[in-house]
Automatic annotation (TrEMBL), chain A:
Cross-referenced PANTHER family: OLIGOPEPTIDE TRANSPORT SYSTEM PERMEASE PROTEIN
Organism the protein comes from: Nonomuraea cavernae
Location relative to the cell: Cell membrane
Name this protein carries in UniProt: ABC transporter permease
Keyword Cell cycle listed: no
Automatic annotation (TrEMBL), chain B:
Annotated keywords: Cell membrane, Membrane, Transmembrane, Transmembrane helix, Transport
Organism phylogeny: Bacteria, Bacillati, Actinomycetota, Actinomycetes, Streptosporangiales
GO cellular component, one term: plasma membrane
Annotated protein name in UniProt: ABC transporter permease
PROSITE patterns: ABC_TM1 (PS50928)
GO BP annotations, alphabetical order: transmembrane transport
Residues in ABC transmembrane type-1 domain copies: 88-278
Membrane topology according to the record: Multi-pass membrane protein
Family: Belongs to the binding-protein-dependent transport system permease family.
Compartmental location: Cell membrane
Amino acid sequence: MTTPLDAAEPAVQAAGSGDGRPAYRGTLRYALSKAGGALLSVAMVIIGTFFAFRLLPGDPVRALAQGRNMTPAQLDLERHRLGLDKPLIEQFFDFVGKTLRLDLGTSYEYKRPVIDLIGDRIGATLLLAGTGLAIAVIFGLWQGIRAGWRPGSRFDRFSTGVSLVLWSVPTFWLGLLLLMTFAAGIGPIPGLFPTRGIESVDAPDGFAYLLDVGMHMVLPCLTLAAVVYAQYLMVMRSSLLEEVSQDYVTTARAKGLRDDDVRRRHAVPNALLPTVTLVFMRIGFVVGGAVTVEAVFSWPGLGQLFYEAIRVPDFTLMQGTFMLIAVAVILMNTLADVVYHVLDPRVRSA
Amino acid sequence: MTSVAWTRRRLAFGRFWDGFRHERAGVIGLAVLVAAVVLALAAPLFIGESVTNVVKGTGDRMAAPSLDYPFGTDESGRSILLMVWWGSRTSLLIGFLAALLTIGIGAVVGIAAGHFRGWIGAVLMRVTDWFLVLPSLVTALVLAAILGGSTLTIIIAIGVTSWPSTARLIRAQTLAVEARPYIERSKALGGGHWHITTRHVLPNVAPLLLASTTLEVASAIVTESTLAFLGVSANKTSWGTMLRASYDWGAVNQGAWWYILIPGLCIVAVVMAFTLCGRALESVLNPRLRKAGV
């Protein structure tokens, strides 16, 4: 986990070509170089995963079989089936080839291909993480703008305090508290929301079904959004603070613009770009939060799949979900990088 | 010569302390922090490992707070108060050691990447950026699951996944320091890489390292509790493993709020203390932040 408080670090370098060529050529070259970097990162993930999972202490077949009794003949057969009797280099190329063809092996726990399991679960995760992220971005940015525009005001101190507390709160603990208070019910408070899952056992069809899923989503979304929102608030605030003292803001005021206009039309657009990029740069943090939230609320998504893989432990499943999550995060980061380059005129026309 | 240096250092520390004293939140954080550390260190004088022993629980199961058990009991009748007290030792130990590992790797990589400009620096930055985009919690979970959950492996898992932001910070600072003329003078006098990095760069980045260490301890404690809650942990009582047990034993549905509330509040209090302290250190030591008034 990285601290949200060092958000002022310039995560995005302006990489203008500056040799007088048309701007789009520079952008294209920039996008290509970023894509190359992303490919290298993905390759490093695959290589890293291969070797990390070969670090498993003891015999991998036994580890995979989770201590079930097997005869030596069965062990040999299994070893042969998994290709573990081949030399390491051959295993490595097998692994890379299969991974590139999206063949992530078969889960021991579920007796099904890992990629199918991922396909079943990914929708629920996208729903939860997408909604949570949207809420966090909207509220975080809005409050960050208000706080950063008037540093030291009561609203600013309140916001900073809230985000500091939320940042210190472990995600899963916040989830447990919400679960206990609003789902299980405590004292005079009745249980308002369902405690687990994405739908009721006897879920109705049509609109009522959507309502049912919505009710199940309230608490997990709230938990995920609360922790992420605190980060975005701080990032937006410090980003706006850097703009407040700039000359162009003084100029805008000097020519008699109303305070709201100076903020909305001058300061915020400039502060927004680096913030939004940072928001997507920290998508890995959201993913970590989603895993935790899904575990607490038994939300049947990718995070819960990963969590189950760790609890069992089912190393094939763990390996597959890990690679998928890591690659997804890398792609999101690269995309954010390129979009920033396209959007920010300061970088584009450089 | 040494006495001059020491006088200078003493004066610098005096100035620093003067600045820190005026950061009210930082002083409060420091006080909480010192109290927590002293309590954790003093725990063996009053209680022993036996308070976490399942068969030695003396109270009722999941009993609400009472005079005998101020914070209630858990599923085996153990006192939550004593468990939390004893568990603070594991939580703080892992927090401190993981933060030290994080800062150690971050400082070495950061200084090296800033000092050696050529391909070494480029490769180091590439690796740093790679680790920076990896979802750190997920990676730490995988590492801890592969290496098996002992205190040492949890520390390694946290350290290996959280150093990149420190490395970037230190690299930026190293670049700024190395641009100063006295580094050139030192090179002209024949100072080698080792001399320049340890004698000139390191003392200059040390204050930043101190501030980041404090912030890293905070996030390491949160990460440790999350790892423990998600099921990879050193099988020792910590605040995270207590919360895991409360979830496993259905404290949520039984309304045993004390079992969930107390360990969590401990985490929040200690983490906030470290964060406040770290932010105060940062604003005193980092002139750029001080000027901006953040």
